[in-house]
Amino acid sequence: MPDATMRAVRLDRAGGPEVLEIATVPVPEPGPGQVRIRHHAIGLNFIDIYQRDGLYPLTYPTGLGLEAAGVVEAVGEGVTRFAVGDRIAYANGPPGAYAEAHVVHQDRAVRLPGDIAFETAAAAMLKGMTAEYLVQRVFHVKQGDAILVHAAAGGVGLILCQWAQSLGATVIGTVGSEAKAELARSHGCDHVILYDREDVAAQVREITAGEGVAVAYDSVGAATLEASLSSLHRRGMFVTYGNASGPVPPLEPLRLSRGGSLFMTRPTLFDYVATPEELDASAQALFAVIRSGQVKIEIGQTFALDQVRQAHEALAGRKTVGSTLLAP
Ligand SMILES: NC(=O)c1ccc[n+]([C@@H]2O[C@H](COP(=O)([O-])OP(=O)(O)OC[C@H]3O[C@@H](n4cnc5c(N)ncnc54)[C@H](OP(=O)(O)O)[C@@H]3O)[C@@H](O)[C@H]2O)c1
After folding, report:
1. pLDDT, tens only, 306-322
2. What is the Cα–Cα distance from 203 to 268, expressed in whole angstroms?
3. Which residue's alpha carbon is at the smallest distance from atom 36 of ligand 1?
4. Residue 62 CB–ligand 1 contact under 6 Å
């Protein structure tokens, strides 16, 4: 029998890291179609910050965190996908992963192969499936493409750069420090630009002999919008998929025309793993590139669940590299 209570992060309002409280709460019971998973590792993601600070509103009181890996310890009525004892992971909520256990719908979880550690899964599921849909489905990265990836030493960044390079792309990454540049170079970046000090678009033109890149993957948002648009070649694709520096301001369609008949999309993982079939396919593709060694999962730092405020400060303060875990 599980403990009747567990430790979990709770919020009763939006705000800074100080709104994150560790509470003792009842262990949740799975409803119809749901499983309860006992967490072995929890993934920290930038979206958790948007949800904590209210950019992406939640209904309070609430838990936080969308991603974890562990073992099924109870199943609700009608569950067919998993049984008690299965190793599983999930990456698309509902919020509440920052806890010793959580209840998720069976359709939102995937079975973990025996060779994928819980820590690897919690470090890679959300970020790695994001990389999967970005390089394979939003834009089909192929041999010979030059591409631009902002925040290249971050959680998504390191996975995305390695994956794109393994597909034959020339990867140009941007980072905030020399130490991050080193890490990005050893994880798929052919060229690294320090975007706080250098003119990104000018550097990109120089690296690509004036051509520009086929696609700009931009998770930084407001601060990098102009650099991304100005780095693209004719009919290039601007993929704005995050807002680490703030949301992208409204954009005139004519700006896309002037940039060379550019395309723009604002995708979110949840629309690319909307069905169990899409979720399984994306996860399997991720496990395959991890298994083959094409993508190494870099766990840059691990915090105890009790240190969740420090973990948020580090991620929001650009102090982390690669993936960040919370240990339940
Ligand atoms: N749309 C989707 O489907 C989807 C899915 C997953 C993640 N995302 C987005 O992808 C991004 C990366 O997520 P992640 O969890 O892997 O985080 P992360 O990249 O590990 O952390 C964010 C990084 O952004 C850079 N950054 C630049 N300006 C910043 C600023 N003003 N404040 C904070 N960070 C800044 C920092 O790297 P430097 O120090 O090198 O600048 C920082 O380390 C986030 O924007 C996230 O929302 C989107």
Report:
1. 999 999 999 999 999 99
2. 29
3. 318
4. no
CA 129/CA 278 separation, integer angstroms: 10
Q: With contact defined as beta carbons under 8 Å apart, do 133 and 267 qualify?
A: yes
CATH architecture of 143-266: 3-Layer(aba) Sandwich (3.40)
Q: Residue ranges per domain, the chain?
A: 5-124+276-327, 143-266
CA of 318 to the centre of ligand 1 (A): 8
Query: 269 Cβ partners below 8 Å, 6+ apart?
Result: 91, 92, 126, 129, 130, 133
Stretches in the chain below the pLDDT threshold 50: 1-2
- Superfamily of structural domain 5-124+276-327: Medium-chain alcohol dehydrogenases, catalytic domain (3.90.180.10)
Q: What pLDDT score was predicted for residue 93?
A: 80
Residue matched to tokens 């209210």: 54
